[in-house]
Amino acid sequence: MSTMRFKLIILAVISGLLLLGCRKNATTGGVSNKIRVGYIGLTCEAPIFTAVEKGFFKEEGLEVEMVKCEWANYKDVLALGGFDITHHLVMYFLKPIEQGLDVKFTAGIHKGCLRVQASTKGNIRTVQDLRGKRIGVPGMGTPPFIFANRVLGANGIDASKDVSWRVFPAGELGLALDKGEVDAVADSEPIGSLLLADGKVRNVADQAQDMPYKNEYCCAVIVNGKYLAAHPKESAAATRALLKGAKWVEANPAAAARLSVEKKYLASSPELNTVAISHLRYVPSVSGADDAVQSAAAEMKIAGMLSPSTNVADLAKRAFAHLEGVSDQWLESLQVEKVAGGQVPPDQDIRLYAELILSDTEESCCKAKPVLASQK
Questions:
Q1: Hey, which of 15, 55, 236, 335 has its CA 20 to 30 A from 256?
Q2: What CATH number is attached to the domain comprising 137?
Q3: Does some domain include residue 297?
Q4: For 7-20, what is the HEC assignment?
Q5: What is the mean pLDDT of the chain?
Q6: CB atoms within 10 A of CB 2
Q7: Residue 160: which domain range?
Q8: Three-class secondary structure assignment of 160-198
Q9: Least confident piece of the model among 18-32, 141-155, 329-343
Q10: Is the pLDDT of residue 163 over 90?
Q11: Does a structural domain hold residue 34?
Q12: What pLDDT sits at residue 158?
């Protein structure tokens, strides 16, 4: 058997095994307007569930097939064509795209929720003060870890030499600070707000407030490259459906949280899901996502998470696709309903609900299971 034929057989076997890791929630015939949407079952994926249940895909002339996957093979299944489109973390996909993964970002879904925070008992007030310190993270390669690496690298600090990393379960980061086991932590919502409310920390870097991060999109729509090349109109239509879903979630976070749970897309409670959703900003943007790809790639390179030889401008251009009919102008003109009882109660207690979320078993995209571990 030739070497090339053997490699092709191995690739086919691997592809089949990866695709077995995903489950289709609905099957449809071989119609040209069918699109397969991937999801894991995360709080942050509310725009996907909303777009399906509110008929936004149908309004765009598309018939949806939902494909449920696991974290472990999510990127590979998208690349191999197991599903066509989803929205997910920009930083999660940049390294694979650099290495040749054929996927494209098309628009931003929500802004980030990541923070680097220092104990109020210490004297750390700036990023420079983190040099030589111990930083607690929920896992090497998690989004908080990647964000902290970016912040350090942008400030001339070598994350592999100039700081020490300590891994703790997300809900125990505050305890690690209390016990003096770490000097600072990198975390995500709602943990960051809980620690602030309890007076345990001060913000050193806040993705939602500090430049150049505050306008950066954490999650963006991402499409299989081959599908996009063969179906540009359907890709644009599906992107618009997801962006409309994001706008609806921003206007109705409590209703979106109930929908996600009641339709069994994730196993949580409406109360927990409402808090998690309400601390993300679902303000979709095309130009914002384009900018986020470039800024994230630039700082990931500085931090050593991308190859020193990578041309950031070329990578960003390769990673992003501008689609016909998908623009910021279209988004500005897009109107969504505001349903009665769909908003967050004004007296919601972040400390109470954050404690509940930390005891919940479900994940969000911003406190994901370890990813990109090879980049630590």
A1: 236
A2: 3.40.190.10
A3: yes
A4: HHHHHHHHHHHHHH
A5: 84
A6: 7
A7: 114-206
A8: CCCCEEEECCHHHHHHHHHCCCCCEEEEECCHHHHHHHC
A9: 18-32
A10: yes
A11: yes
A12: 93
